[in-house]
Amino acid sequence: MSDIVMPSDEMMRHTSMSMSSVSWFEFLLDEHKLDNHLQQQNPDPSPCQLIIQFLQQAEAHLAASTALVREIPTTPNGQNDSRSEDGNMHDKLVVKESKKVIALKLLALKVAAHLNWNLNILLRNIPVALLQILLNELMRLTVDGDIEEIKSTVSDYNSISEETLFSLQLFHRWALLAVVRDSFPRRPIKSFVQVQGQVDPAIAYHALNEIIMRNLRESTAVSIENLEKCIQCGRVLKLPVSKCFPVLSDNTEDFSLIWDNCVTVTPQEYHCQVDDPVFINVDNARLKGYHHGCQSLQGVTQQEPPEKVTLYEKSEACRRNGFKGIVDVLIEDNLRQELTMIYRSELEDEIGTKGDSLSEVYVQVSICNVVRGVMEGKALVSLLADVIEDADPQTIEFLILVLGRALHGASFSQKSNLKCFV
């Protein structure tokens, strides 16, 4: 995977976050300030905002240093040593990172360690381009050799160190998660309150993110094979914590990472998630949703304890069973309001395509949805008028039944909406 050229120094200045109570440079001046800040209940800036600020500032200073290196004075004979015969600069310039750049990157790693390297949080809040820089920096500190070459090949997980094992699997997990997330329709990365004249980081990094995602998609097979090798090796992982990364000061001449502070992650932990999550955390609700979605596609029915079954699960079971009992579920949902109106409308549309066999159920579902909408304060009188225009007595009785049950358990505002509707 090739290196990505970061935005220019000027762009970096325009992609900073909104004004916070603490500035990023204060964490360079006091080695205890970051730990104290992260222990607050709702720190401002948040951990992910800090990572973005530290990495942006590091890249800005690195870009400035690169620009200075390119301005090499000409030789006595008038020739510029850094240019080729066609007048173009050489493609690669070796720029030594300053102490300030190293310190900023270590601070970013320290914050990521505080978040337990939770990729769900990091992917949701940090642009892909900056997150790649963060993981690359971790690999540079733990991996011997050219990290670009190592990322694009399958490593021997039986011979590498425990710290290297962690950084490699973390990178390849991130690569696959990023590709999966990119394939779904999603909201933009959360942006903060904009200051006039500043550009949203999500916009500034959009082009870079597209290039990175294309490279990640091309390398998915390598990432999958690496993770398979990681699982098969059955070795212990060493998860770096915040105390592994020092805070550099002006007097620091050299530094070393304190790997003895790492947390041990057993193979059982990352194989099966058998204990309280330390290494990763599982979104149970999302996982359960995927599970029931697969059940619906495959037509598989699985019995679950009634007390643990949600209304969504009940409705999906009704859908697989020819929509038997779906009306009772929707009447119950009018009070509990677990199902979204979009989902309920999709059910109504699907039943409407089934023909005369479910015409009565279709009318009842339509009435349930109208009552639910009215409880939310939506004016849906015209829809109900269409439903009951030529309705028989049974349909009128059903409408009264649904309204009665809704009034029985509705809140004060919902009762007011229903009374106005009636």
Automatic annotation (TrEMBL):
It comes from the Eukaryota. Signal peptide: none annotated. One of its GO terms (cellular component) is integrator complex. One of its GO terms (biological process) is snRNA 3'-end processing. InterPro entries: INTS8 (IPR038751). PANTHER family: INTEGRATOR COMPLEX SUBUNIT 8 (PTHR13350). This is Integrator complex subunit 8. It comes from Mytilus galloprovincialis (Mediterranean mussel).
